[in-house]
Amino acid sequence: MTETACIRNFCIIAHIDHGKSTLADRLIQKGHLVADRDFQDQILDNMDIERERGITIKSQAVTIPYTAADGREYELNLVDTPGHVDFSYEVSRAINSCEGALLLVDATQGVQAQTLSNMYLALEHNLEILPVINKIDMQAADIPGARRQIDHDLGLDGDDALLVSAKQGTGVDELFEAIVKRIPPPTGDSHVPLRALIFDCRYDPYRGVVVHLRVFDGRIRKGMRIRFMHNASEYEVETLGVFKLALVEQEELAAGSVGYIIAGVKTVGDVRVGDTVTGADRPCAEPLPGFREVKPVVFSSIYPVDSNDYEELKLSLERLKLNDASLIYEKDSSAALGFGFRCGFLGLLHLEVIQERLEREFNQSVIFTAPSVKYKAHLRSGPAGQTEDILVDNPTEYPEEGRIEGVEEPYIRASVITPTAFLGNIMTLCMEKRGIQTNMTYLDEKRVELIYDMPLSEVLFDFYDRLKSTSRGYASFDYDMTDYKPTELVKLDILLNGKPVDALSQLVFRNNAYDRARLVCERLRDEIPRQQFKIPIQGAIGSQIIARETVNALRKDVLAKCYGGDITRKRKLLEKQKEGKKRMKMVGDVELPQSAFLAVLKTKDE
Fold first, then answer.
1. Average pLDDT, stretch 302-318?
2. Among residues 6, 97, 286, 500, which one has the fewest Cβ atoms lying within 10 Å of its Cβ?
3. Which of 162, 147, 149 is nearest to 476 (CA)?
4. What is the pTM of this model?
């Protein structure tokens, strides 16, 4: 068993695409955890979706053995974290398990928005921060500039920053030595009652829930009875160990260690990320402070394509929530789509990832409704003019127009760091999205930071993509929720053959309603298969139709048998056909294919 003085727990934090996973690859290779022939890039990103998109979604832990220059054997527990703003909850949980952080700065791009917000997260937990300048082998690398930015923007000592090239492995040996010397060992007593924090979980169909934890005090051994403090459920530890890419069994985990336990937990609801594990026979006095409650910002409903798969979808969501604690859901139903779940997400990328994980990992065919945010509606409730406030995130629950005194929508404080060359285009984009500029700071002669007050609903759809394309990928974006402000909101209904489809309803800003309605109608026209009768597709606010498209009917050529002759004969045949179509339209139902719902989610041509 490694003594506490020889353990180092650290994470790698940075802005998206600054080389966290590549650096983790080099550290793993230096620790000889995997043979060269079995090695693959992004080795900690074990989901297909992470490899395809080139992003990290889940933070992953790995224990690396290291022999220092002084000959001592160390155990380095590394947690690789995501960089995208939608997965900042993963980062906050990883930071809770560590004593130090490697803060990566890309030598070609410098300090960016997520670099700052992740550093503040680490400082809140009193972590020792090691600035590391990565990508020094690139032609565009500006090392003196990166050092100045670390000094000026982060308030850290730029001269202390370590220089590495994660791709080529340059400077990795020096980095190992710095980790051992500058990151403090964990504090904790192995002889007091057990206190361990659950920072992640996953479900194994054969062995039950695999619990990932960091031991702060005490020891945990095989055969020991443990208690989850949140709901007081007790289990016996079957196996435990550490992460060395595969799960490596050990006899015990002592204070300071990061590892896993398997205790035959089949009831998924018994385990919660952020809960404290203690001994059943000798419990600790109070639980560890868990993680802050996650606040979803984007809401959407999920329905199974086949309504018979509802129970299976429910089970899949339970197991997915184990592995992604930021997913929040509750039961929901729709006249068009049957029973489903109303879910809360941390952003649009989070929604896309959940959709893909449900389809790939759990073989679920699902339909998502258009995303929405949580609005605050003030309703007239009495003769004396009193108002009551309700929160609405589902268009089907939106009150009638006559009852509404006013509506407020959530705003964010958006921070954009961009090279000065793209300043004009980015300001135009933010103004288009109803942003109000509150501050503009020149960080140096090449970079400027813009602060905007902006409605969250405007950022949901294509803001991030357009920001990246406008700035050729150089601008970075981060945001914090602020408060609610008054807005003009309307409920946009989509009518199909004169009947509203509740799953396609959306809450939109009044001035954007016409464009959104036209776009949805055009999309549906292209996706709905033609029937034997005309299908009108309409966008409506209340009783007012503001957009319309028509899916033309499939028609049999009833005039084919008429070779010339009297026009009245032709007219009679056409009138007869028209009557039949009219009768068919009255009783005909239009089925919406899954692709139609997905098409509505996309707001621009892709």
1. 83
2. 286
3. 149
4. 0.68
